[in-house]
């Protein structure tokens, strides 16, 4: 008889998901990684990983997968739902990948009698939107997302809140960076090539969290007595865009040309990159949706609640960037 607690992690092949899987194994959970048939298992090589295939858009297939799981392994103690769509030119993709996948999974869990002790939704700060004043964003701020991505995450959160007897917590990380991430890599690569870009000004307020700290925060929230709550997660510090770029330049030993691009010009370029993206079928980092976030003045946060649960980040931005840049160099992403 296996006395290990079980954990099922969706989005397991992704940047955050693969780190969640590694931590689950380290913590001694019987670990189930939810993947799709075509998922890349590059970061899921540990033999302790048990693979499960879910199709969130196919109810009969999802039911069968859960019934098979229940017959073989019994109950699921914890679920971390980290699967989702973070970028797309097609707005509906966000709702399919973030709201509908969450709703379909929860309904299937209920239908098949495999409710977990706790369900953790990995959402985003984008579900709150930017700070409307100069004060940091808190969990008590009214949710006014700027983008379809943020709106789809908020819709998933609201769905969970509508479930009176469903045990959940929601984690809202700010900008997540670290080894394996491709979005921040694009910014680092730009600076390594001598280009330092800003939208409108260099004083945008920002917050960050290193991926391993986020993973720790997710497990703290999951294992805590908390239910039906949101937890904003950062490294407990706030920065400006200039401070971020200066730290990157320090660790890359880079000299740059600084470009402050007015929002209307950035919007024009976003239209062009979207057009290229439709041809290449790749979503560009700069698109009209992301531009809404890039030009917002305040993404600083107050992460008091997760700190009160015992969360203490190990990586402030300086140390985290140093680690990430070292990884990118060691793995040939940066020279």
- Main sheet makeup: 7 strands, parallel
Structural class: alpha/beta
Question: What is the CATH third-level topology name of the domain at 6-181 and 207-236 and 300-316?
Answer: Rossmann fold
CATH top level of the domain at 6-181 and 207-236 and 300-316?
Alpha Beta
**What sort of overall outline do the alpha carbons produce when their principal axes are compared?**
globular
Instruction: Sketch the topology as an H/E string, one letter per element.
Output: EHEEHEHEHEEHEEEHEEHEHHHH
Question: How would you characterize the overall build of this protein?
Answer:
A seven-stranded parallel beta sheet has the order 3-2-1-4-5-6-11. The protein has a domain at 6-181 and 207-236 and 300-316: NAD(P)-binding Rossmann-like Domain (Rossmann fold, 3-Layer(aba) Sandwich). It contains eleven helices and 13 strands. The chain starts with 5 loop residues before the first strand and ends in a 5-residue tail after the last helix. The chain has helices at residues 15-26, 59-73, 91-111, 148-161, 183-192, 211-223, 241-252, 263-280, 288-294, 304-308, 317-330, and strands spanning 6-10, 30-35, 50-53, 78-81, 118-122, 168-173, 175-177, 195-199, 205-206, 208-210, 230-233, 239-240, 257-261. 42% of the residues lie in helices and 16% in strands. The mean pLDDT is 92. With 335 residues, it is α/β, with parallel strands linked by helices.
Break the fold down into its secondary structure elements and pairings.
Elements: E1 6-10, H1 15-26, E2 30-35, E3 50-53, H2 59-73, E4 78-81, H3 91-111, E5 118-122, H4 148-161, E6 168-173, E7 175-177, H5 183-192, E8 195-199, E9 205-206, E10 208-210, H6 211-223, E11 230-233, E12 239-240, H7 241-252, E13 257-261, H8 263-280, H9 288-294, H10 304-308, H11 317-330
Parallel strand pairs: 1-2, 1-4, 2-3, 4-5, 5-6, 6-11, 7-10, 8-13
Antiparallel strand pairs: 9-12
Helix pairs in contact: 1-6, 2-3, 3-4, 7-11
């Amino acid at each position: 008889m296996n006395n290990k607690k079980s954990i099922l992690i969706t989005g397991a092949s992704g940047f955050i998901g693969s780190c969640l899987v590694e931590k689950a194994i380290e913590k001694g959970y019987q670990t189930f990684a939810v993947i799709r048939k075509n998922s890349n298992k590059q970061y899921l090589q540990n033999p302790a990983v048990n693979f499960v295939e879910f199709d969130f858009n196919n109810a009969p297939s999802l039911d069968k997968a859960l019934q098979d799981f229940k017959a073989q392994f019994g109950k699921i103690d914890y679920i971390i739902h980290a699967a989702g769509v973070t970028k797309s030119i097609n707005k509906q993709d966000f709702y399919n990948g973030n709201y509908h996948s969450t709703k379909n999974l929860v309904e299937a869990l209920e239908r098949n009698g495999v409710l977990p002790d706790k369900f953790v939704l990995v959402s985003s700060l984008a579900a709150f939107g930017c700070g409307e004043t100069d004060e940091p964003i808190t969990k008590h701020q009214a949710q006014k997302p700027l983008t379809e991505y943020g709106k789809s995450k908020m819709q998933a959160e609201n769905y969970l809140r509508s479930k009176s007897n469903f045990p959940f917590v929601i984690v809202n990380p700010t900008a997540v960076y670290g080894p394996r991430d491709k979005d921040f890599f694009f910014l680092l690569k730009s600076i390594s090539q001598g280009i330092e870009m800003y939208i409108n000004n260099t004083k945008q307020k920002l917050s960050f969290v290193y991926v391993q700290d986020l993973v720790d925060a997710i497990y703290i929230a999951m294992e805590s007595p908390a239910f039906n709550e949101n937890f904003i997660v950062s490294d407990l510090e706030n920065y400006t865009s200039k401070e971020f770029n200066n730290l990157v330049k320090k660790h890359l030993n880079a000299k740059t040309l600084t470009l402050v691009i007015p929002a209307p010009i950035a919007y024009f370029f976003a239209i062009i990159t979207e057009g290229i993206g439709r041809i290449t079928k790749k979503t560009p980092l700069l698109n009209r949706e992301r531009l809404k976030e890039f030009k917002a003045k305040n993404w600083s946060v107050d992460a008091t609640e997760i700190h009160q649960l015992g969360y203490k980040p190990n990586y402030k931005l300086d140390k985290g960037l140093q680690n990430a840049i070292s990884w990118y160099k060691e793995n040939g992403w940066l020279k």
